[in-house]
Amino acid sequence: xxxxxxxxxxxxxxxxxxxxxxxxxxxxxxxxxxxxxxxxxxxxxxxxxxxxxxxxxxxxxxxxxxxxxxxxxxxxxxxxxxxxxxxxxxxxxxxxxxxxxxxxxxxxxxxxxxxxxxxxxxxxxxxxxxxxxxxxxxxxxxxxxxxxxxxxxxxxxxxxxxxxxxxxxxxxxxxxxxxxxxxxxxxxxxxxxxxxxxxxxxxxxxxxxxxxxxxxxxxxxxxxxxxxxxxxxxxxxxxxxxxxxxxxxxxxxxxxxxxxxxxxxxxxxxxxxxxxxxxxxxxxxxxxxxxxxxx
Length: 295
Ligand SMILES: NC(=O)c1ccc[n+]([C@@H]2O[C@H](COP(=O)([O-])OP(=O)(O)OC[C@H]3O[C@@H](n4cnc5c(N)ncnc54)[C@H](OP(=O)(O)O)[C@@H]3O)[C@@H](O)[C@H]2O)c1
Fold this sequence. Notes:
The chain has helices at about 15-25, 40-50, 65-70, 75-95, 125-140, 160-170, 190-195, 220-230, 265-270, 280-295; strands at about 5-10, 30, 55-60, 95-105, 145-150, 155, 175-180, 180-185, 185, 205-210, 215, 240-245. The chain is globular and about 55 Å long. α1 (about 15-25) crosses α7, α6 packs across α8 (about 220-230) and α8 crosses α10 (about 280-295). The chain is α/β, with parallel strands linked by helices. The protein starts with a strand and ends with a helix. It has a domain at about 5-160 and about 185-210 and about 260-275: Rossmann fold, CATH 3.40.50.720. The site of NADP nicotinamide-adenine-dinucleotide phosphate has 26 residues, from α1 and β4.
């Protein structure tokens, strides 16, 4: 059976990957990007959702710049919470499911073992608070809706930390990254694969964590990417990612959780498959997509 899927935020890093991957799998996928719709405009949002009889709406649209959100909490709330509530309500009215992408930044970061879906969400930034409010509005609209929390998203459709560290290592002698903040990278290509079974009404709804397996600091993540690039024969000027503490990041306006690795046991139980270790996904990206893009 083919699903009619409406992807909102289809020009973003994750949204673009979902549209491509699921179209290739034979689903009927339509994307709505910001150029077609500002999701803060409730009338326009309702009209757009009335325009096509989809089975599942997947919302990837979000204000994702954590520091911008800290300075613009009202806008962050409108995009990351209020608009999610509208999408969730329209889907519930139509009897359709809404899958909404959320974040590890709903957690406060005090824990030192991977967060499960049962752990208390206590965000420490306006971004995290708005995303948590979005989850709550989503789930209040229908118990069938699903909030999927991802973390440190990377992929070929928009640059991320991974691309920045590789580009810097190619052009600069010194590269550094934060070594006292832990999370888990999430490949958009793998996310498309892992999310696909959830288009069917597999779970009852609620919250599920989706990221690659394992955990790392930004410094370990960056170092591994440089090691992959070197193995792939990329000419690097810097081969080592120097560790720096988060306190040295003067440009950071918002507080970030120090630890926000997520456990994916629930996802594995739901779809019968575990995510790959983050190292495998990063190696595949660096050797394949990133290297090809440089040629
Ligand atoms: N990136 C990460 O590391 C990360 C980590 C944890 C969770 N997440 C979550 O994962 C999801 C996808 O993130 P991503 O990495 O794909 O982010 P992204 O590349 O920034 O994509 C978000 C998309 O939303 C669009 N958007 C922003 N405001 C909008 C508005 N008012 N109306 C319509 N569209 C709007 C953006 O438009 P423009 O194209 O104009 O920017 C962009 O295309 C988000 O829910 C995010 O919170 C991401």
